[in-house]
Amino acid sequence: MAAPLYKLNKPHLLGIEGLTALDIAMLLDRAKTLAAANFKIDKKISPLLDKTVINLFFEPSTRTQTSFELAAKKLGADVISMQVATSSVKKGETLLDTAMTLNAMRPTVLVVRHGDSGAVQLLAEKVNCGVINAGDGTHEHPTQALLDALTIHTRKGRLQDLVVAICGDILHSRVARSNILLLSKMGAEVRLIAPPTLLPVGIAGDNVTIYTSMIDGLREADVVMMLRVQNERMNGHFFPSAREYYHFFGLDAKKLALAKNDAIVMHPGPMNRGVEIDSAIADDVTRSVIYQQVEMGVAVRMAALEVVGEYHAGGAK
What we know:
Elements: H1 21-36, E1 52-57, H2 63-74, E2 78-83, H3 95-103, E3 109-114, H4 119-124, E4 130-136, H5 142-156, E5 163-167, H6 174-185, E6 189-193, E7 208-211, H7 214-217, E8 223-226, H8 242-249, H9 253-256, E9 264-266, H10 279-282, H11 290-315
Parallel strand pairs: 1-2, 1-3, 3-4, 5-6, 5-8, 6-7, 8-9
Helix pairs in contact: 1-5, 1-11, 2-11, 5-6, 5-11
């Protein structure tokens, strides 16, 4: 397979906010090509051949870290995954100390997940390699939004003019923020559905409407994207109980019936079954595309690594 014909021409992928609609479309086109070819490329022309990718995850991850590892290996890179729980960070080393240590190893790309919003941006300013944001605090998770968009496009054939309902813990969700930015840029109508306590201030805008009722927000939706209740980020009580939350905001067959008959169901994982989604809905292969999202994640992360790696391998400088 030939190398990509486009260049992102940016040193890092830190968020959807810094991408144009054309950037997004080109990344999705490349990822779609990779997925259709079963993730096979000609490693001899890969910008990551014999280059090093370091995964630096300060928060636990299964899907994201594993898919980045697989994506980098398919591109011919040498991959190092840092176990932060046993690294010098736990001995008191600062983020910037860690960044400079890793920078001295001369990687081509750092893939970073961190619990603090803005930490990945700070790190990117201090290193000489490419940085891809694998999720920072409640800020952004750009490759998740890209893989969600690719999954939607694969099933629906477009993003423009679709009604996408994003439901649940909007307040603490970097996935929601990146999806709102991406879908709005690509012409979709975004509906945010959550209890008032889980809605950030000032989130409504062009193509984005707020609902505090699943009954109102799900009507005639093309896509229903459920979000995990992020208990680990909650200080205080945001709803009375998990049982009451499920009653009003958990996706079950009755609520899903309000959406279009061919509406698809998404979830970034991991799922809290019986809290934000019913198991019967999550496992319904006729409506749920949750496992397709995981598959699309490898293709999207290959595309992201390609364009950032190409920049730092000399292809865009």
